[in-house]
Design goal:
By secondary structure, the chain is of the alpha/beta class. It has two domains: 3-57, DNA polymerase, domain 1; 64-338, Aldolase class I (TIM Barrel). The chain has helices spanning 8-17, 24-34, 48-57, 116-119, 128-142, 161-172, 192-199, 216-222, 225-228, 231-245, 263-273, 298-310, 331-337, and strands spanning 64-71, 74-80, 86-94, 97-102, 105-106, 124-125, 148-151, 184-188, 206-210, 249-255, 278-284, 314-317. The strands form two sheets. The protein has a ten-stranded mixed sheet with strand order 1-2-3-4-7-8-9-10-11-12, with helices on one face. A two-stranded antiparallel sheet has the order 5-6. Strand 2 and strand 3 (86-94) form a beta hairpin. Helix 5 (128-142) crosses helix 6 (161-172), helix 7 packs parallel to helix 10 and helix 11 packs parallel to helix 12 (298-310). The longest helix is centred in the middle third of the chain and has 15 residues, at 128-142. The chain is globular, with a radius of gyration of 21 Å. Bound molecules: S-adenosyl-L-homocysteine (SAH). S-adenosyl-L-homocysteine (SAH) binds at residues 110, 112, 114-116, 152, 156, 187-189, 210, 252, 254, 283, 285-286, 288, 329.
Length: 339
């Protein structure tokens, strides 16, 4: 098994099963995630026997960076996986820290009409180690620690739930990379049963919902998933999530010209979200050459923003990173493949 795919708790269990000492897990995590060595022989405080046993069961292997593009406040990576598939990650430099947007699947099956990643369809889920690797390789490349992680790259995290949760456990573990749970955000297009499962996850990870429409009619026309889990079911699940976790939820709302950006949409959205502990993140749409949706004008976005504000809905407008370097939303992979 790849060493980057095992959680701290699983590693402790592994050592107990091998009649070894539980604390070895602390030592190994320290070497792997704090000192960042990439072979067993450098683990100087770990006994030879333990190292030999581990060598039989684990190996070190990361991904390959095949392309890197940069702008002032953004760096975009294209990774090649062992089977030749490719995924992307984007690093963004903010005044509050450095965040990374990672991929969770090769392609995506959710079929959102505006999305470049969905256009390419899901090939497979990413393994946990492939997600952890994105973090390690980028930190190595930028020679800096990341402070925030968003799971908003290629793929639907809740369509790869188990691996994603293991990934969060690993990067959040205070024995290793130790990125705080409040600095980790999972974004979903609204797979209701998984939102419900996530409600019982014991870490204080942020949840973002890609809502993108104030009613089922519009949402059905741009997001296939809405036919399985319509808006009222999402809202019900979110209310339960908030009641249980007491955490504020983010609703993402892409501004698509002439589709969901009218004043009446803003009013309808305000009504829908009234009284829910949430805020709306308005996202200027990143146009791609393959899809005909257009981005709303700055003026329209501001009007929409003002209406939400006036109706006491917390709202922000997402700063645009990386559109110059094809860094936006799945475009690097698709340009590379030329499909
Ligand atoms: N599948 C998850 C996470 C990946 S997509 C989800 O749907 O939330 C991350 C976010 O980027 C989603 O809100 C998605 O709707 C949005 N997105 C996709 N294509 C986009 C584009 N071209 N411009 C702006 N946002 C986009």
């Amino acid at each position: 098994m790849n060493i980057y795919g095992i959680t701290f708790e699983e590693l402790e269990k592994y050592f107990i099963e091998k009649n070894d000492k539980k604390f070895k897990a602390t030592q190994v995590f320290d070497w792997v995630y704090r000192k960042r060595i990439n072979n067993f022989d450098e683990m100087r405080n770990v006994s030879k026997d333990t190292i030999n046993t581990m060598k039989e069961d684990f190996y070190f292997d990361k991904l390959e960076i095949i392309q890197r593009q940069e702008d002032v406040d953004v760096a975009k990576y294209l990774f090649k996986l062992k089977d030749g598939e490719k995924v992307e990650a984007v690093v963004m430099y903010h005044d509050y820290g450095t965040s990374i947007c990672i991929s969770t699947q090769v392609g995506c099956n959710m079929g959102c009409k505006f999305c470049e990643s969905g256009r390419l369809k899901k090939v497979r889920n990413l393994e946990t180690y492939e997600m952890v690797s994105q973090i390690l390789m980028v930190e190595e490349d930028i020679e800096k620690r990341l402070s925030h992680i968003v799971l908003m790259g290629i793929g639907e995290p809740f369509d790869n739930y188990e691996n994603v949760i293991k990934f969060i456990d690993i990067v959040n573990s205070d024995k290793g990379i130790a990125i705080g749970s409040r600095h980790i955000t999972v974004s979903t297009c609204g797979i209701v049963p998984k939102i419900r499962e996530f409600t019982n996850y014991d870490k204080q990870v942020n949840l973002a919902i890609s809502l993108h429409a104030p009613n089922n009619e519009i949402r059905n026309s741009i997001m296939n998933i809405n036919k399985a889990y319509p808006i009222e079911e999402i809202i019900k699940a979110i209310k339960d999530y908030i009641a249980k976790t007491n955490r504020r939820v983010t609703f993402e709302y892409i501004m698509l010209k002439g589709v969901n950006d009218s004043e009446s949409c803003a009013l309808e959205l305000s009504k829908l979200l009234r009284g829910i502990n949430c805020y709306v993140n308005l996202i200027p749409y990143n146009e791609t050459s393959h899809i005909e949706y257009k981005k709303s004008s700055q003026d329209t976005i501001m009007k929409f923003y003002d209406i939400l504000k006036k109706n006491n809905i917390g709202v922000t407008i997402r700063r645009e990173f990386g559109s110059k370097v094809n860094a936006a939303c799945g475009q690097l992979r698709s340009h590379y493949e030329e499909v």
